[in-house]
Structures are given as C-alpha cells and as structure tokens.
Amino acid sequence: MEDANIVLHNQNSEDFVIIWLGTNNVESDLKSRLRHIVNCSELFNDPDECIDYISSITKEKVFFIISDSFARNMIPLVYELPQIFYIYVFYSKNHNEKEQNDNYLKVRGVFFQKDSLVRKLSEDVIACSNCLTPISMLNLANEKPIRDLLKDNVTFMWYQLLIKILPLMSKNEIRNDVKSEMVKFCREQYNENPIVQQKIHEFDKDYSSDKAIGWYIQDSFVYRLLNKAFRTENIDIIFQFRFFIADLHQQLSKLHPSFVHSLSGKTFRTYRGQGLLVDELEKLKHNIGQLISINSFYSMSTNREVALLFAGDGEGLPQIESILFEIAVNTNITTTAPYANIAKQSFMDGEDEILLSMGAIFRISSIHKESGTNVWIMTLLLVGSNDDDPLKQLTNELGNQIGNEPTILTLGKLLAPMGEQDKAGRYYQMLVNKKPTDPHIVASLYNNLASVYYSKGNDTLALATYQKVLEVSSKYRWANHPSLASTYNNIGLIYFRQGDCETTLKNYEKTLSLLSPSDPILAAMYPYDHPLRMNTYMNIAGIHDSKGEYAIALKYLRMTLESRRRTLNKNHPELADTYNNIGYINNKIGEYSTTLFNYEKALEI
C-alpha cells in the first residue's frame, strides 16, 4: 500500500496534497469532493505509513485531516514537519469535549460536519494557491563579469530562454500531435478525477490558439499544472504544455500593440492582491531597490478595490500575509514580456484584468503596511530590458548565445554551461523520446546528451550514447565528416579519465584526422587553427606528460601556443593556460629559466 501511495505522489503535478488519516468509512462522494479541491488526495489508516508518506513529499504543501481518534497523539508528531501547511481535526460524530489546539497555529479548526470541513479546506487551498507566485531575485552587481552574471541569475535566464525557444519548437511541430500529447498527459494526471476529466474533454474539443488566455485565467487544470511547473521549473510539464505556452505568449503579443497605443504613451497603474508566505515577504523587504522577475504569466487589475478583495484582510491565515502589489507601467519602455487588457476574455464581471507574459522584470520601490490595516503595500515599477546596465548586459549576452536562428537544441546547449546539467539532460532525453526524423538532429541530441552524462561522471552511459552518434553517422554515410571530431575527442576524454591512455590517444588522433578534410569547402570550415584542434593538441600533450614523454608533450603545447597567438586576443585566458602548461613541463625537465619565463607570461595575462 505504501509503495502505491508513493508512486501516486511522484506523479502529482499540482502544488498541494490532501492527506486524511483515519478513514475507514469515507464515502466515494466525499473522496470526489476532496479531489475536486486538490487532485492528489490520499487516505490512510496506519499512522506510520501516513508519516512515511508525508516525509517522502519534497515540493508540495500538505493539508492534513486527522480523525479524532488520532488527533491527540499525531498533532505533536507532525506539527513541525515542513510539509505540513494546515491541519484539520474531524470528529465522526458529535463530541462533548473539544481538543485544546490553541498552541498549534497550523490547526484550522475542529469539524463535526463534512460540509463545513470541505468548505474551510476549499477556502484555505484557494488562499494558499494565490501565495505561490514564482518570484526570483536578480543579482546584478555592476562589477561582476558576464560569466558570473549568467551563473548568478540562472532562474531568470531559464525563463527568458523558455519564452524564446518554445514558440520556435511549436512552429516546427504538427499542432494536432502536440495538442494530443498534452491532452494525454493531463488525462493521466487526473485519471481518478471525473470532474477534471470532463474539463479536459472540453479543452480537447473546443481549444484554439485564440482561446489561450481564456483557458489560462480559469481556475482549471491548465492554470494549476502550469503554475506549479513554472514555480518548480519542471521541464517535464513545461515541455508537455509547450504549444499552449507559445499560444498564450503570442496572443498577448498580438494584443499588446493596440493596448499600448490606446494609452497614448501614458504610465498607468495596476494592482494585484494576494497572500504571500511570511518568509517570501521578508526576502522582498530586504531587497528594496533591487530587481525581481515574475516567472509565470501574471494577472493584475486596474481596480484597486477588486485587488484588495483578493489580498484579504491579513487575519486568520497563519504563515500568510496579505499583500497588495501596486504596479506602475510605463508604456514607452521596451519589455520582453508583452501585456494586454484581457477584459473580453475574463470571466470576472466588472474587472479590467491585465495579463502580463512570463519573465517580466520589476524594481521594488517600497514596502509598507497600510495604516489601520493588516495589508502590506508593495510598489513595483515594470523595468525595460535596456533600463539597467547589468540587465542590458545580461539580456544582450543571452541574445548573442541564442543567435538569430535558434533551434530546438539551443535551450539544452545554454542550460548546461549555466550549471543546469539535470535540466539539460531531461530536455535532451525528451527530445530523443519524440523520435525526430532528421538524422543530424538525432546525432546532435545524442552527442549533447552524452556530454551531460560525462559531466555528471557517468562514463558508461556517456560512452554508450556517443556510440549512438557514431552509429547514426555510419548509417547515413558521414562517418568521416569533420563534425564528428568533437565526438571522438570527448570519447578520448572518457578513456583518459579511466586511465586507458592508448585508447585515448587513438581517439585524439582520429579527431585530428577528421579536422584535416581533403574537401576544400570543408577545409575552409575547419581551418588549421580551429579551436578543437588546439584543444586536442593540449589533450595529447597531457597524455604524453602522464607517460613521461615530456619532449613530445612540449611539441604539442608549442603548436597550441603558436595557433592561439595567431587567433586569440593577447589577454585571452586560454593563452595564459597554455603558457602555464608549458612552464609546468619546463619545470619537470629542469629548464628553470624557461619555466620562469612562461609562468611570468601567464601571470601577465
């Protein structure tokens, strides 16, 4: 039973789990009502199994219902678990004595009626769901080099990449196939929830690209699955929804120009009321004047009073503070996140709703508690991509790396250097599973996936996957194309790490032979000073150094130095590495004056 429950949990794609301990006689109707509130609703009779399951949860928040027979002993045991958000005590029949839970703020009440329990649970889930806006702080110190800016702002870069790459992917796929893939995924997530299954059926039957906004702003499976995916950076779900995300962004992009034109260059103010977890509010309070990025689609209202209703009164919800975002939007700035008035698509009467695309950037102007209330007011300013020098530098570098013609491989290629090896690997594997028909794409996917395995130290999988690259190239008769040089070089690196110098050297030699094509067109594409040739020379030098063959090692290092001096800036760090390596070998063979010269040259750079 425990294993089955944990499997269900691993498939949970929403933000919450309802767990009920002590449920011998829960009617099927009540189970259905719970699943309508939160799809993943689990029932337990055994306290130990229940605690094990709660402990296995890593990302979701738990709404925990305890039947009266377990409450006295279980509440102290589970109260401090970080997974537990709120607790509800349910009595199966009227009871004259009420448990004293005043010291347990997470306990939302004692309930004797199922209707009152379900109503309270529903209210709390809605309030909590409004707290989970995925926000990331941008770390943009002026003095940092671009490489550090990229690493320090991985989450921001990730979402900027997504919104650029997903429309490209959607454009190059068969729309009905991608939609069917998404619908199938959603049905699997809600396989025991007939109410949501009906909604998915409606989506499958009626959806079109001009209805993306309408579907997103409903409190439906689309909104719930996507918001959790954005908050947790879940590449699996985001990939399943790729065509919908592209539709939603493009629909906003189409509406944006006319909306901005209607405002005649004015700055307008919008509002968003919601709850915010206490620790998230504290982080924001310590970053006044700094930039934040909203990593999902973001709805706002032009009506302050309506937004205040969504904020709540700041009372009665432990761990949650009421907050009203007051957002100033200058329509003259250039933003990568289009926005538009979606009143025509909204189901809320009397509310002028503004929807902003994902990846919007704001500066925190101020945070204060409104006089006479328990509501925090946070003023934000929408920032353009050219409004801040480090931000401009970061977005320019992103544009340079993506290039003018990004492909479906681009996202993975940029994730790996940013330290997101796991995401890159999952992304490549999902593309492989789609069985692309272009053999060049297939070979590139295997090559990139193998590089991820290598970086994670999995030599066995890396070698097996590189072998697939060679099999594809042999099948389509480009086994001697220079593009395979990097594959052989990487195979050599694996064998070197395993201590097999002879096999390593054979692969490096194959690399060099592929980089010397007889075809004049290919020779122009892969000139003598090609960077991979120089890296291979360095690697060969390392092999001969490990074998004590220092003269041969120096020969390859000096060839590397000559080439890099011809092609690189005199202060390039790769030149410093080369001088340093030459000095290292000089020192080994006792050429101390030459050693000193090369070390000094490295230090000068």
Automatic annotation (TrEMBL):
<keyword id="KW-0802">TPR repeat</keyword>
<feature type="repeat" description="TPR">
    <location>
        <begin position="443"/>
        <end position="476"/>
    </location>
</feature>
<feature type="repeat" description="TPR">
    <location>
        <begin position="485"/>
        <end position="518"/>
    </location>
</feature>
<keyword id="KW-0677">Repeat</keyword>
<protein>
    <submittedName>
        <fullName>Uncharacterized protein</fullName>
    </submittedName>
</protein>
<dbReference type="InterPro" id="IPR011990">
    <property type="entry name" value="TPR-like_helical_dom_sf"/>
</dbReference>
<dbReference type="InterPro" id="IPR019734">
    <property type="entry name" value="TPR_rpt"/>
</dbReference>
<dbReference type="Pfam" id="PF13424">
    <property type="entry name" value="TPR_12"/>
</dbReference>
